[in-house]
From TrEMBL:
This is Fumarylacetoacetate hydrolase. The keyword Metal-binding applies. Residues 78-284 form the Fumarylacetoacetase-like C-terminal domain. Keywords: Hydrolase, Metal-binding.
Length: 293
């Protein structure tokens, strides 16, 4: 699978490039842009032409290169909520105000919320954080859409919308505290180009939680179970809003552990979306642990 990536070449950690990781994952070829933001300022047709032309560019060995989150500049991550029946059921189980989740599931207007600025996003192998003041926290595996500054879907990626269900369950108005904090947003390092995915609503998703090397949760779903179309979510995201450097829109989750199972320190979360990619992250409790890594 071809992927768009940001990377630092071996021996040159400060030289950040944007490029293409080949099907075998063996070689990286840089694109003639200075940043992902610059790439996403181009029309989709131009982005596709640049990726095709990269096949003839000099290759850098992928082993030893550091893959970075595919966001920079003023890029943001936004997310949709309650887009699957399982999510609607889980939110009602967790909340003291369960009716609002049933209403938004059926409403014309979707739930959309700001999730993260680019600088706060983590990627493959980097820790995700569960809040120190929250006893029950979950990963939320989701299909992400990488949008150009014009709102065109340039690619698909894996997103983990880590959330405190204790805090959101206490009062839905606490949603920003449950969702937006250091280490709560992880994305795959690779973005699968949109033109290589035949149908984003026919993708298998899976998630495992490992504790002391043992699987304590596994779940599977398919994006075909979503009750919103990606284009519908994008249309609402763009209403009276601008994303001059591009944006990632996460489309909601359908794999939710039971209330008796939350994330714990040292867990490992593995997420895979067929045809898109994978994301594996360890878990730490409290954002202060990030500074110790």
């Amino acid at each position: 699978m071809t992927h768009l990536v940001r990377f630092a070449e071996p021996g040159h950690p400060a030289a950040i490039r944007v490029g293409v990781l080949d099907d075998e994952g063996e070689h990286l070829r840089a694109l003639p842009v200075a940043s992902m933001s610059e790439l996403l300022s181009r029309p989709l047709t131009e982005i596709r032409a640049l990726v095709a032309a990269a096949a003839g560019a000099p290759a850098v060995p992928a082993p030893g290169a550091r893959l970075l989150p595919p966001l920079d500049g003023r890029m943001e991550v936004w997310a949709a909520g309650v887009t699957y029946r399982r999510s609607e059921e889980a939110r009602r189980e967790e909340s003291a105000d369960e009716d609002i989740y049933a209403r938004v599931y059926h409403a014309q207007r979707p739930e959309l919320f700001f999730k993260s600025a680019a600088w706060r996003v983590v990627t493959e192998g980097e820790p995700i954080v569960i809040r120190a003041d929250s006893p029950n926290n979950v990963p939320e595996p989701e299909l992400g859409l990488l949008l150009t500054s014009r709102g065109e879907i340039a690619g698909y990626l894996v997103v983990d919308d880590v959330s405190s269900r204790s805090i959101e369950g206490e009062n839905p108005l606490y949603l920003p505290q449950a969702k937006i904090y250091q280490g709560s947003c992880a994305v795959s390092a690779g973005v699968r180009p949109a033109w290589e995915i035949d149908d984003p609503l026919k993708l298998d998703l899976s998630m495992r939680i490992l504790r002391d090397g043992r699987e304590v949760f596994s779940g599977r779903a398919n994006t075909g179970e979503m009750n919103r179309k990606p284009a519908e979510l994008v249309e609402y995201l763009l209403r009276d809003n601008a994303y001059p450097d591009g944006v990632v829109l996460s489309t909601g989750t359908s794999i939710v552990p039971g209330l008796d199972l939350g994330l714990a320190e040292a867990d490992v979360v593995e997420i895979e979306i067929g045809e898109v990619g994978a994301l594996r992250t360890p878990v730490v409790r409290g954002a202060g642990k990030l500074d110790q890594g």
